[in-house]
Specification:
Chain lengths: ~260, ~450
């Protein structure tokens, strides 16, 4: 015969579970999104100018080295970016200009020295490789946290730094070439120090990792990064040679004029 | 030849040397220099006649300098050392150093100003000339090189004003520079080695040979002298309408391509023979017993006015662009080879698409409409042309395969150029390709340093 207290106890437990588990689960969700929003909105300067070395490494270990400059400037919530390739000769003078637009696709231009003019390019073809690197155009663009559903998987150390591990699944599947991302975010800086990209079939296909994270002008900067295409066994290394923040870069830098001027 | 060679060496040394050798204040000067060695060897795959070039070689050392005297003052100075060789049983070759771009530019926040020899690119279509009329082109190698490679710099003053919502570009060219078109001789000259072929043949009389040998094509005396009254000017207004980039153009200029104008009535028969070189036509011409004046044709570069516009945007997964030009009093040859002028409209539209595997496709359609039409020599009232480009990189950009094609629907003539290009890690490139029209195979090497 069941004692009255046991029935009440079971009901109370069920009631408590119904009340608090969703709340706990919601708190975990909220934290994950808050983490991603904190990363998205972290201080990365009002503007920045990088000089980078890009190394493309094929599966045989063969290397192709490029030098490029990247300029970026915040316009409230939007960003404009200019990328200029300085070497080698077959790509020298190629420039890429991107303007984020609120509620619309990015406006992008590509300047090819052989054409001596800039050309509008399609920003919605996110799967395309960016100038034969392991980065696609989607990888190059900032991704607003609202486009994914995030969940905090765990916390663990990566390269000696404690990280939040957040799983992000696109809200609209067609909005991304990936079925999900798992990102490691450094707890101190909220910089993404590693991301695993899973293809539409759910298989781990690419991995992005930060190998050197330093403060420059009091801003956390990924000085050395690696993007690996695990299927093709090819990787792209980016080494920042020089970085300057908050230099007051003029608006004219992010114009078609800058693309076409010698 | 020896003096020319020494001149080449001296100028090359100047362009390739260190800036510090020439300036005590070199620290204040930013001097970027680069050079590129380029060489193409052509082989005719199929012999069509004994007077075409069985082999040809085109080699070039291009030296480019950009000197920054201050943050807003820059000088561009480029030169080519070029060697061309045509082989057709004999050898025709030429060796020279050519100053290309040489201009001084001032760059301010809201405007820029440049003066000197420079190249201008207008329009949105690739390898098609509608509104892109400013820079003359060298057709010495016909269309074996792309439009931008064919362009020749010319002396001009260029002013650009940059406002928030628009850009205005104004150009003034004090003198006229025509496009370089060869009429007789090696390579891709319009009438090839017609005169040589007639002279060598045993099928023609001495009179006929003399008639052909005295044919001359010359610049008009007026335009061969640089005169301010031949100066040209144009403007471009560039802006954005919604998500569409648009530009509007006006250009007053001399037609870069010459029209052959006769000095006498018999000159029309000379033209008829050159464009339709048959035995019957030669007999007709010879029967006229033409004088030297009859046999001299002049390259006429009529002054034209052009208005036009271009646009570029993105629609779905494609880039879409186009341009329209309206030319007033464009010159043509009538069916009897007399000279006439007609208003002409040209319009083109192009679509770009890049597939998910990074294969790139570019398709363009161009239409030309001659107004108030009357029968013309080799020009239809409505003429249509399609161009196509397909490219794909392999091995992460080490190998580039491409095919370019041009089909003039109205005249049933076409050009096809497949090419495979390998890009070495140090930037050296080697390419192998073929032009199907005239069946030419070529090998190209390019080394930057």
């Amino acid at each position: 015969m069941r004692l009255p207290g046991q029935k009440i106890s079971a009901a109370v437990i069920c009631f408590l579970l119904l009340c608090f588990v969703p709340k706990l689960w919601a708190e975990a969700l909220l934290d994950a999104k808050a983490i991603m929003e904190h990363s998205y909105n972290r201080d990365d300067g009002k503007d920045c100018a990088f000089t980078l070395e890009m190394v493309l490494v094929d599966k045989a270990g063969g290397k192709r080295v490029r030098e490029l400059a990247i300029y970026s400037k915040d316009y409230d919530e939007l960003i404009k970016t200019l990328i200029v390739f300085k070497s080698p000769a077959d790509i020298e003078g190629t420039k890429f200009l991107s303007w984020e637009n609120k509620g619309a696709d990015d406006t992008q231009y590509l300047f090819l020295p052989a054409l001596n003019r800039s050309r509008r390019i399609v920003s919605t073809q996110k799967k395309l490789q960016f100038v034969n690197t392991d980065f696609t155009y989607e990888d190059m663009q900032r991704r607003c946290p609202d486009k994914d559903t995030h969940s905090l998987v765990k916390e663990e150390a990566y390269n000696g730094r404690m990280c939040y591990v957040v799983e992000s699944i696109p809200v609209e599947k067609e909005n991304s070439q990936y079925s999900k991302r798992v990102s490691w975010l450094d707890r101190e800086s909220f910089v993404v120090v590693m991301t695993e990209f899973f293809n539409k079939k759910g298989k781990l296909s690419k991995r992005f990792s930060v190998e050197a994270l330093e403060k420059r002008q009091d801003i956390w900067t990924s000085m050395r990064t690696r993007m690996q295409d695990l299927d093709a066994k090819h990787e792209t290394l980016l080494n920042i040679i020089e970085v300057k923040y908050n230099q007051g870069i003029g608006d004219e830098v992010f114009s078609q004029r800058m693309l076409e001027e010698r | 030849m020896k003096q020319k060679f020494l001149r080449v060496i001296m100028v090359s040394l100047f362009f390739l040397s260190d800036a510090a050798l020439f300036s005590s204040s070199a620290q204040a000067i930013m001097w970027e220099k680069k050079a590129e060695f380029f060489s193409r060897a052509y082989q005719e795959a199929e012999e069509d006649n004994a007077y075409e070039d069985a082999q040809a070689y085109d080699s070039r050392l291009r030296m480019e300098n950009k000197v920054g005297f201050a943050e807003d003052l820059v000088m561009i100075l480029n030169a080519d050392v070029r060697y061309e060789n045509f082989q057709w049983g004999r050898t025709d070759d030429d060796f020279d150093i050519v100053l290309r771009e040489a201009f001084l530019g001032v760059r301010k926040e809201n405007y820029s100003f440049s003066v000197g020899r420079q190249i201008v690119t207008w329009g949105k279509l690739d390898n098609v000339v509608i509104v892109d009329q400013v820079s003359p082109q060298s057709y010495r190698w016909f269309v074996l090189y792309d439009k931008e490679e064919r362009k020749e710099p010319e002396l001009m003053v260029k002013y650009n004003y940059y406002a928030d919502t628009f850009e205005l570009e104004a150009i003034y060219l004090p003198f006229f520079e025509p496009s370089q078109v060869s009429y007789f001789g090696p390579g891709w000259s319009t009438f090839g080695r017609l005169q040589q072929a007639v002279a060598d043949s045993t099928a023609y009389t001495a009179s006929q040979k003399n008639t052909v040998s005295q044919i001359r094509i010359e610049e008009t005396e007026d335009l061969s002298n640089k005169r301010i009254k031949d100066s040209e000017g144009g403007i471009r207004l560039r802006t954005k309408m919604s998500d569409v980039d648009v530009s509007f153009y006006y250009f007053n200029f001399h037609n870069r391509m010459p029209t052959l104008q006769e000095a006498t009535a018999n000159g029309n028969v000379v033209k008829a023979f050159l464009f339709v070189p048959t035995d019957a036509m030669l007999a007709t011409l010879d029967a006229l017993n033409p004088t030297a004046e009859d046999s001299t044709l002049y390259k006429k570069h009529d002054r034209l006015n052009m208005v036009g516009f271009d646009f570029e945007t993105v629609v779905k997964q494609c880039g879409v662009r186009g341009e329209v030009g309206l030319f007033f009093d464009m010159p043509y040859l009538q069916s009897d080879f007399a000279y006439t002028r007609k208003n002409t409209a040209m319009a083109g539209i192009g679509i770009d698409y890049t597939a998910s595997n990074n294969a790139y496709m570019n398709l363009q359609f161009v239409e030309t409409i001659i107004m108030d039409y009357e029968p013309l020599f080799s020009q239809e009232q409505y003429s249509h042309e399609i161009t196509l480009e397909l490219t794909k990189h392999f091995f992460r950009g080490k190998v580039l395969c491409s095919i370019e094609g041009d089909y003039r629907i109205s005249y049933s003539d076409w050009m096809l150029n497949p090419e495979i290009r390998y890009i070495f890690n140090n930037g050296f490139e080697a390419a192998f390709g073929r032009f199907a029209e005239r069946d030419i195979v070529y090998l190209e090497c390019k080394l930057p340093f």
